Amino acid sequence: MERTTVKFYQTGTFTVGNRLLAPHERSVQADRARTNSLNSGHRACQGCGEALGARYAIDTAMRATNNQLIAVNATGCLEVFSTPYPETSWQIPWIHSLFGNAAAVASGVAAAMHVQGRTDVRVVAQGGDGGTTDIGFGCLSGMFERNDDVLYICYDNEAYMNTGIQRSSATPGAARTATTPAVGGEPGNPFGTGKNVPRIAMAHGIPYVATASVADLHDLEAKIARAMEFRGARYVHIHVPCPLGWGSAPADTIKIARLAVESGLYPLFEALNGRVTEATKIRRPVPVTEYLRLQKRFAHLFGAKPDEARLALIQAIADRNILEFGLVDAPNPAPGPAPDQAPNREGAPA
Amino acid sequence: MLKQIEGSVAVAEGIALCRPQVICAYPITPQTHIVEGLGELVKAGELPGCAFINVESEFAALSVAIGSSAAGARTYTATSSQGLLFMAEAVYNASGLGLPIVMTIGNRAIGAPINIWNDHSDSMSMRDAGWIQLFAETNQEALDLHIQAFRLAEELSCPVMVCMDGFILTHAVERVDMPTQAQVDAYLPPFEPRQVLDPAEPVTIGAMVGPEAFTEVRYLAHHKQLKALTLIPQLAAQFEAQFGRKSGGLIRPYRTEGAETIVVALGSVNGTVQEVVDEMRADGVAIGSVGIGSFRPFPLTALREALQHAKRVVVLEKCLAVGLGGIVSDGVRKSLSGIQLKGYTVIAGLGGRAITRTSLRQLFVDAGNDELEQVTFLDLNAEVVANELEREAEARRTGPTAESILKRIGAVSSRIG
Amino acid sequence: MFQVRIHGRGGQGVVSGAELLAVAAFYEGRFAQAFPSFGSERMGAPVMAFCRIDDREIRLREPVMNPDALIIQDPTLLQSVDLFSGLGRDGYIIINSARGFDDLGLGEFARGFRATRLATLPATEIAIKHVRRPVPNVPLLAGFAAISGEIRLDSLVAAIRAKFPAAVAEPNVAAAAEAYALAAKAKEALHA
What we know:
- Chain A has helices at about 50-65, 75-80, 100-115, 130-135, 135-145, 195-205, 215-225, 245, 255-265, 290, 310-325, and strands at about 70-75, 95, 120-130, 150-155, 210-215, 235-240, 270, 275-280.
- Chain A is α/β, with parallel strands linked by helices.
- In chain C, strands 2-3-1-4-5-6 form a 6-stranded mixed sheet.
- The interface between B and C is medium-sized, with 33 and 32 residues.
- Strand 2 of chain A pairs parallel with strand 9 (about 205) of chain B.
């Protein structure tokens, strides 16, 4: 009888516990011996992207440092849901000081380790977008500038979520928040505002900067592991959907994160010493509407009379990212206005 | 070893002897010389095992200190005035977390109006933040208090502010006796933290505490400071035994035996007060003074003992509770609860105005005759004040008050005191 | 207690001068306190520094209101600042100038004091000659030492050597010696 070889194709690489992969290619989370640094029992919302991202990031950092890790946390969702009085879900040494000083406190911890000769112990600072791009910005820049040996991880859910969904400098254009309501002539967060902290981190010339997403957890782990290979200031910015704040279904968190990446709105890249060295290509770009449609915070752009002008602005941002980072090999749709640094710095529609 | 050096330099050398491990520095007049001095020592390799970190703000300075102290390193920083306010959130955080950070405050007025000269408004702004607050009378004491402060902080797990008058002490060159390394080592053992970030024994520091336990946590902080009321004199006594001089302690009474009038003050002005006390005693006036060394915890019992037999107490303060009057007076009054005697508050030296022997003498004479108001602003220029009030009554758009007053008093450079 | 008040302008070493004086007294086993009057200093602005010397611990913290000696590093201040405030009739006055008290318009004023306790010195010129910088503090201090005897020249020299590296110290020492000799000679001439 003739034998036919049957090829099995694993669709997508997103399966975390993929036993078809070689052990060293598998996710840290797939390992029974993972440290569970952020243990279960925390009080994150169903479908919380930040809890997902933090669990992956910290366990990876633990593996990379042979479990010699100290974490510093800014005030915010992660800090609050992981330490609900009187419990803590952290299995590692962890300190929460204030909202705006995580980077500085981490610098202090790193200095203490250094002077005590404990060069094997590494330090991770973590905060949400509010604590990183706004109130913690000064301390972040100071830590970058001194090139202190700290990995700062920002979990970006694009608003101050823990306090009830208020706008931050990471909130995208047109997004509805409690302080940028979807009313009036310019509904939602204005265009022409915002801060691109990964680029600002690069501008400091620090050894390693990367963007990551809970859409691709392998990639997230790889980037954290890579970051830990360097000494000095490092920054990883992770896109983490927030079902509550974004008005999306808890089950859609990873899907939405994936759409953000595939639309070009959230480029995944790495930068060494201020220069982009790698960017993840998009296999099949999707229009931004597919991403926006799943989130109630953009609902006012849709409906009987869609806000074509604003949707076009958002699409232009995605297109510009695709162009700038070379995310798509095929020819592009017409690119948007001249390159600029901020994510939604496009100017308001006429 | 005897040295004739600037106060800041003396403090820097004293801190160096305490074997600090992390020092963070942000410049602000008038404490800058202290951290500069320490920076130089570290850079020159004279402070091995110490990291000197130039930070981007005072908020960052104390935040870095919080991280390093929580990670088990003996940590030091310094600030003044606006800088202390800028780190206010971290000040409460450090004491709330029980971290034994030692911080020098080079006392300076808080603006507006902006003023770089000495008064106590900065330390006073943080008086209830849970830090221990010690005040130095001389540069020798400033140096000595830092050594005691590390010991105190680490034994209690409570941060300590050592307050020394900006310019008056920080920039004065005077004689100090610098201890030896061996002396300091014998007094101050290596830092053994009560809580520490260590991968070998993970702990969560800084978690939320709900209504169920917050009161107890705060009570324990209060209790800790009350314990300091016993520990401070003990450490001062040990210091005296080992170093051969009196420094620190809760209060310093001066010629209070049989005194009918007692003057209470904090910091360097006590020196001038003692001079006047001596002059007046020589003239047969029954006057004495008490310097408060520990403002937090406030030495209620010790003060009561020192003051209770007087007829009147004059509290001389370099700070102002706007809308109320005295700050130190409140504490003094509390210590005399139930005792009937006359109490006077004198606000003096604000923003660096010189407190002269002559003015003090007149003030104490008036006090002795009970011819003082409840609250007196020493050497207030009543004419300037009256003019300004008149101006304000006449028109709406009177412009900045400070500018108007400065125009009236003229060129400052021609004045001596 | 002996109290000195030094007047000058920012950049003339007024504060260093007070410090040197204090250190010199320290070397003689005495207590000393030196501090500046703190202005928002810029080069050229009037500044003051104070020095107290005593044989017991100095507790007083006020500015020197009643100086026993005045050192005036810049005679242009005579117009703008009440330099002599608080000075008693037995006070010392040393002024940085090549001209005498009469030529400075202080002739009448000077008669209220003891002639042997007054001196003018071309301190800036002496400084430029030896140190090549117009910082008159050291020569004036030396002059003060000569006419008051409150500190010895060798104490001042020791203080200079402790403060500056040799390349800077030695020219200052030379300047001090010349100023001291000049002032001592002038004082002697008055006695004669």
